[in-house]
Every structure is written in structure tokens, then in C-alpha cells.
Amino acid sequence: YDPKLPPYSTGDPTSFAFPTARERWPIIITQAIDDTYRSVASCDNAEKADGGKKIVAELARLKYEVQHDRALTPIPDDGCPDVAGYNKELEQLGPLSWLKAPWLFTECYLFRRINAPFSLSAHWKNYDVFARQKIKTFRSSRPAVLELATRYKDLVTELRANPAHDPEADKLLFTEMCEVCLWGNATDLSLLTSLTYEDIQKLQGSQARLAAEQNILANDLPAAYAHLLAAKQDPAKKGKDRRVDIILDNAGFELYVDLILAGYLLSSGLATTVVLHPKSIPWFVSDVLPADFAALLNALAAPRRFYETASEEETLQGKVPEALTDKEVGELEFLFAEWSRFHAEGMLMLRPNRVWTGPGSFWRLSEEAKEVVEDLRDGELVVFKGDLNYRKLVGDVAWDPTTPFPEAIGPLGAGSGLNVLALRTCKADVVVGLTPGKDEELRQTDGGGGDSGARKWAWNGKWAVVSFSKGS
Ligand code: F6P
Ligand code: MG
User: Fold this and answer.
1) Where are the domains of the chain?
2) How far is the CA of 316 from the centre of ligand 2 (A)?
3) Are 26 and 66 a contacting pair, CB within 8 Å?
């Protein structure tokens, strides 16, 4: 079911897969080793500590295999139903070695392999090896979190005071919320290996967002808004559920902005329910697990405890976190009250499914996960967040960049019954939906790749595409 075009490969020096596999994967595994080791060191159960040491040894072996371009071996059977699918695909792809393999499959396989020793252990089954990094980065996005909390509270208060608002004003708000949600993705932790916290904070502020509007290369937000508005105004749908699904990407700041969008959709009546789809295993470092959702709400429920308690690192450095003002605390608590009410009333739901951590593209969903597609069809719109979800939608193959998005998503495009909106900052090679000549123009910009054959402009999250496909 995959598109019949060559997939990007870790063996291709012009692909972003090449440095990703050689430089970033070893760093990611090293971070996982350090984290596990830290937990082992502070563990007072000898049997658990022993199990932890075995995991560390397994991860070290995995790192060796990646760096020495060894063969990809079958994932050991840890009792989870996805193992067979991974191993079948590995067999079908033929003997593969880490540094000469299809990028999408191999990267998914990497995270599944990282998870296997935990999953096989007695005491570490649900351990999230990336949790420390996620929470730390979320704390460091404090300026943008506070700025958005003010904006959100004002906006919701205004929506309540004037429920009959003008659709043109609503369209502007919808655009703003979606763009907040889009750029929240620019700072995922798998890229963070090369960004400083100051870089992230600069990327997250409202100034940066406005300046970045011209970096959205294809912007279908007007069509997505028109679609949701038509459903809202449709007499046949009066009193019925109008659902928006969000296939989540990263935890922390990005999940926070996803909730801003979800809360806005519910408060404005553009949706009556929002279903969030997190991952089931630690994934691409920073992706959302159900526990991250709970951790975020906990942080908002007690903002002083979250922001004013010094972390281990701050204590070591003698740093005292700055106190929050009463106004800031009030705004964060407002968010907590809103979102936990939506959650308690069943308007905001979490629905994990193993399908999101499978090895392949989403072209296969209609065949391999019929019930998931059926379920998504019940909604008005499915929002796919982030780079990896986009790569999976279009199959991570070398499309001509002017290919229309509905064509590139194959079976999920026209006629599928799914209305798809991708909010993606570009952090890989593949891109579609561009106007003719745009790719060539961007390649000629500073650092854009020039005539090297590499589409470097698309690697760092500076550019974005917002693409809509109507399923009818
Ligand atoms: O760009 C490197 C990378 O690891 C990609 O492989 C992956 O698509 C992306 O980072 C993860 O980004 P996101 O969190 O936006 O899916
Ligand atoms: Mg991610």
C-alpha cells in the first residue's frame, strides 16, 4: 500500500537521514543509557537495579550496532502484538544494516528496539526513558507558557461575553490558534540535540510566530476553517456531536499548545468534542504518552510547586527559580480548571492506540487498521501534528514537491471520508504541496542546500506546511 517511489534512506548522503542516523541516533541512545543509569543509581530494590543494569547493557549494545552499521535483527518477542508486524516487515525488506536502510522504517524500529528491553523486564515495563528530558524542557518554556496562558484566558473570557461573534473575527482567531499549535512543533526533543534553551524560547514567543507566518509555504487554514464552520452551521448537525481528532506529536510545550487549540475549538463551538491520540510507548524522544497529559495537568494544577521548586540541577548550581506572580498563577489555574472540566465532562478525551507506533506509513491504515479509520471517519476533522506524522502520511518517499497533498496521502485522501489537516514544521526531506519553483528557490537561499542535491532548507523546522485534504 505504500507509494511506489523510492523511500529516503540512511545511506544517501544527500538525505537528512544520513546525519540523523550517524549523529543523532547515537546521542539519543546515549541519553537513554544515562537516564536509565541514573534511575538505577537511585534505586533501592536490588532486583530492580539488576534489571536496570541489564537494560543499560542492551542499550549499549544497540548503540554499538548502530554505529558499526550492523544488521537489523528481529525484535525480541516481548508479548506485544506489534512485534510480529515489525519483524515481518524487516524480513520483507531483506537484510538491512543501520546505515543503508529506509529511513522511516529504521527510525521507528530504533524506538521500538529501545523499548524492547524495558518491556521485557520485570520492573521497568512502563518506564519512560525520556520523561526527565520532557519535563525539563517544558519547565524551560515558561515564558511562552505564561504568555499563552494570558492570551487564552482573555480569549475564552471574550468568547463567553460575546457568544454571537463575527465569523471573520473567528477565522482570524482560528488561524492564530492553529499557528500557535503549528510552531509549537518546531522544538521537539529529537532536534533539541542541536538547540539551546535560549533558541527554543526565541522560537516560542508571539513575536517569533508573527514573523514566521511568511515561512508557511502552503497554508490551507482557510479551507479547514470553512469546513468546520459549515459543519457548525449545518442544520442537520444541530445537537449532534462534531468531533475533532488530534493525532498528537510531542509532550510538554507542544502538548500545551495542542490543548490551547483543543480548548479554543470547544469554547468557540467549532467542535463539540476533541479526541487526543497519544503514543503507547516512548517514541521519538518527546512524543506524548498518556502519563505526559496527566503530568501537564498536574503542573498547571499546582504551578508554584512546578515552577518554584528547584530541580536537582538547579540545586547543584545554587540557582533559585524565579517566583510566579499571583496573576500568572491565576491564569495557569484557569487553564487547569477549563481543561480538567472539559476532560471530566467527556468533551476532551485521550485515546491511545498501538497503531501510531507501528513501522510503516499511514497509507496502510485503511487496510491494516480499518477500525481506527472507521472511528476517525466519525469526526469532522483529523489534525496530524508534526514532522513524523507528516512523513507517515505521505510515506516518506521522494515525491515531486509540487504533488498535491491529497494525492500524496493516497488512501487517506479524496474519497476516504477523512478530512485531514497536517500541521507540520519541516524537519525531514519530504515535502509536497509547494508551488512550482519554490523548492528550487529555497535551495538557493543561505544554507538551503544549493546544488548539492540535498533539500537542506527543509531540515531545521524553520519552514512549515499546513495542508488540508477533504475526504468527500
Ligand atoms: O528530523 C529528525 C527527526 O528525528 C525526524 O526523523 C522526525 O520526523 C522528527 O525528528 C521528529 O519530529 P516531530 O516530533 O515533529 O515528529
Ligand atoms: Mg515527535
Assistant:
1) 17-129, 132-469
2) 30
3) yes
Please report which ligand is nearest the Cα atom of 105.
Answer: 1
Instruction: Tell me the CATH architecture of domain 132-469.
Output: 3-Layer(aba) Sandwich (3.40)
Question: Which ligand has the nearest atom to the CA of 289?
Answer: 2
Residue of 264, 275, 240 whose CA lies nearest to 171: 264
Beta carbons within 10 angstroms of residue 375's beta carbon = 16
Residues 292/352, Cβ–Cβ less than 8 Å: no
Among protein residues, the one with the nearest Cα to ligand 1's atom 8 is: 388
Answer positive or negative: Cα dihedral of 20, 22, 28, 31.
negative
What is the end-to-end Cα distance of the chain in Å, rounded?
21
Distance between CA atoms of 343 and 155, rounded to whole angstroms?
A: 20
Q: Which amino acid is at 205?
A: G
Q: What is the mean pLDDT of the chain?
A: 93
pLDDT at 164: 73
381-385 and 243-247 as β-strands: parallel, antiparallel, unpaired? Answer: parallel
How remote is the CA of residue 224 from the centroid of ligand 2, in Å? 23
pLDDT digits (tens, 9 = 90+) for 320-356: 999 999 999 999 999 999 999 999 999 999 999 999 9
Please tell me the distance from the alpha carbon of residue 277 to that of residue 384, in angstroms, as a whole number.
Answer: 10
Contact 189, 298 (CB under 8 A): no
Fold of 17-129: Transcription Elongation Factor S-II; Chain A (1.20.930)
Q: Of 215, 212, 247, 190, whose CA–CA distance to 16 is shortest?
A: 190
CA of 21 to the centre of ligand 1 (A): 12
Q: How many CB atoms lie within 10 A of CB 307?
A: 19
User: How far is ligand 2, taken at its centre, from the CA of residue 159, in Å?
Assistant: 32
- Give the pairing of strands 348-350 and 273-277: parallel
pTM metric for this prediction = 0.95
- Atom of ligand 1 minimally distant from the CA of 286: 14
**Does the beta carbon of 184 lie inside 6 Å of ligand 1?**
no
Closest Cα to atom 4 of ligand 1:
190
